[in-house]
Every structure is written in structure tokens, then in C-alpha cells.
């Protein structure tokens, strides 16, 4: 442990010395921008439909999520209560032992084990349902909810919020499918370490249905892209906005502040990620409830303080969602902005969260699938909506409502301070919006932002590391190589501009959709089988309780 920490310090020394050079942040950004722009253009390739150029990846996300929502009969609503009960541990006994063993019924719900993988699923798993959810939520509930919403409103106006919520509701179904598959097709190492995620269900699942070669190719593609996404959206974007907020709050001047802040963040992240998923889970299960609670309470204070404007705010969201706005290509433009920002925020369809959920202790893969559908709800439907309302209130404060609507319809933006004419975007806009109602809250928000960024980075380091090991093996050399590269990107993100980082981050997250959604569209029948097993096990437990076969006080 000490040797590894010393290596991180040695890595930081040359970065700190370079930080003394004038304009290092600009040099890093200049080198990074061309690649970020090229990659964004490639991933967001458009297809012409009804006169609009729509990114193909957005079409794939929307169509896939809609199909899963209908096929599984709106699981985000019908399985919501089951998800809450599962997180609470209500069914932990059957998840650990299996309903057939508990109630001596070998014929019911026979387990379909995968050859050469988890033979006794009840004996495997590294984290609880809540820890898995906290780890995955920490990877999604992050600066996409703070800065990302501001970017969405800046590009698409208040109407983008509506489409973010729609994407979040549809994304609940996609998350349910991919995380169920993540547990079903996971691998267990000799030491009990779990290895899971889309690269495993692509390779194993496709082999099961007779497309083994295609599955291997898709698994490798996903792993490569996931490593890149861990460097981008799960890392560089987070450190960038944390550095921006810290610099803005303390009025730090100069061209090297980003690098210095990035090095400090890199050291802190490095201390945690050395410990693997168990340490990450222990950290996130403490940080996530605290930071989410802090942010939600602050948002509610502002919403209640502007209670009289809530109706108008929702009117702006509704009208903006369906009304043409300048420079956006009308309705489709707002829709694309909303869906793209929501996809970056909750990552439903990207498959990344399935890596964290794969490590859960359970015998029923669908148990973690229903837990996972809570993520887009928490992330996009609740927190993103609250952020959007706070920003909208900030912009309509002291201004005639009709004037705000007319300006928004004409310019497609609600992020211009009417008193000064100054354009604000990203995390600075969110910070100013909170500060306008809760004086000096920017200091508290800075803490929240740093925690958001920190927790997201440590979660994504695990996602990227799992993908790295899938590509290069599970030895210690591969482990330390990835972690050093990851920490370097913490510094790069802090030094680059928001525009460059968003281009790279968006594209890397969205690129994961291509191989992952192909896998989901081929393997979704397996999810239906697993859901039937899990719901059947729950029903059998309830019947056993009713018949007096088990003590209701111990199992309810």
C-alpha cells in the first residue's frame, strides 16, 4: 500500500513542476481540442429523417429504450415497489440461498446456470444491493446533474428539461435490462473477485445464442470504448468542473491552477482506487446519500422560496419542449439536446453501470436489475428536474414572465442574466442560481461538486479498470498501468476547457451505446426469464409466510 501511494506522489512531482510554466492549461487544451472535436463528429454522425439531421446514437437510445419499456410492461412503474423492497433487504434470504433450497422445492424455478462461470451464485458477490446502487449512482449522479443541466438549458432552453425527464423514464427500462444481464453473465475469479459488465454478457451471451465470434468482437469494442469513457466523462469532465468551481470560488488567477487542482484531486482519487470495489463501495455508500441529500434539500429550499413561480416554470418547460426555438431546428433540436444530456447524465444504454451491479451478492440476476432501474429515476427525473427549476427561477427572477418566454423563444437560451446581459453556462450558472437565494451557498455547493466529482471518478475508475483487465489480463501490472493513466486524465481534465472536455466526454459515453444496445436487443429474452424466476421466488416466499412455513417477524 505504501509503495503504491509513493508511486502516486512520484507521478505528481513532475506535474507540479510543469504547472509553474505560464499557460500550461492552454497548452493542454490546445493539444486536446482537435482530437475531442474529431471524435465528437464521428460518434454523433447524423442521419436525415423528415428534413432533420438526427444523431444515429440518439435514435438507437430512444428506440431501444422505448421497445424495452413496452416489452417489459413499463418496469419503471410496475416494478418500482419491488425495487425499493429489494434495496431494503426484504428478499435477502431468497437472494442468498435460493427459494428452492429454502422451501425444498426443486422443481420450481430451476436455476439456469451458465457453464464454466458461477456455479453457486449464492456464494459469490462482493457488495450489497445498496452498495452496488450507491456505487452506480455515484457514477451517474454527478456533475451531469449540476453542470450538464445548465448546458442543456443553455443549448435548448427550458424545454430540454422535459426531454431529459422523458429520457430518464425510458432509461429505467434499459438500465433494468443491462444490469440483469450483467449479473447473469458475470465471472468469478479464484479469489472470489467479480468480473462483469457488457463485455462479458456480449461475449458469453452471444456464444449462448450461436454468435460467439460476433460477441467477442463486440465485447472488445465495448471494453476499448469504456476505457476511453472512464478517461473522459467519468473523469476529465468531473475534474474539469470541480477545478472551475474551486477557481471561481476562491478567485484563483493564472494559467496553471487547473493543473495544480488536478494533481491534488489525482492524489486523493489514487488513495481510494487502490483498494478496489470493496473500498469504493464503502466510500460511495457514505458519500452518495450525504451529497444527494444536501443537494436535494438546497434545491427544495429554492423551489419553495419561488413557490409562486412553479406553475410558470413548468409552463416554460412544457412550451419550450414543443415550440420551435432559434438555432435548434425546432422541436427535434430541443429533443436531441435533452436526450443527449440525459444520456450523459444517467448513462442508461451505455452499459457502464452493469459493471458495478455485477458485483452484487445475489442468486437472482433480476434482483439487481430492478434495483438498477432506480438510478435514472434518482438521477434524471428527480435531481436533474430540481436543478432545472433552480436555474429557471434564477433567470425569471425580477423579470416579466412574458418577456422571458419571448426571449427564450427567439434565442433558444435562458441562461443570460437579464440585468447585466452576461452569458453564463455550465457549473457557474448553477452556482449563481443557488447563491441568489441562499447567500454564500456557493461554498457549500463547491463541497458538493467536489464530492460529486470525486465519487464519480472513483466509480468510473472501477468501470475502466474492469474493461482494461478484460483487454489486457487480470495481473497487477495491468492494474497499476491503468490507474496511472486514469490519474493523468484527472489532471488533463482539470486543465482543459469545458468545451473541449464536453466534446470528448459526450462522445465517449455515447459511443458505448453502439455495442451495448446491439447486445441488449439480442439478449433481452434472457432478462424476461430471469425476471420470471425472481418474481416467482418472491411469490413463493409470500405464500410460505401466509402458510406459516416461516416466521413472518424475521422475514418481512
TrEMBL record:
InterPro entries reported in the protein's UniProt record: Na/Ala_symport (IPR001463)
Topological category with respect to the lipid bilayer: Multi-pass membrane protein
Pfam families: Na_Ala_symp
Keywords, ordered alphabetically: Cell membrane, Membrane, Signal, Symport, Transmembrane, Transmembrane helix, Transport
Secretion signal, residue range per the UniProt entry: 1-19
Subcellular location: Cell membrane
GO CC entries: plasma membrane
GO molecular function, one term: amino acid:sodium symporter activity
Transmembrane segments: 49-72, 217-237, 257-275, 287-308, 320-339, 370-396, 441-463, 484-502, 508-524
Tree of life domain: Bacteria
Family: Belongs to the alanine or glycine:cation symporter (AGCS) (TC 2.A.25) family.
Protein name listed in UniProt: Alanine glycine permease
Organism of derivation: Polaribacter glomeratus
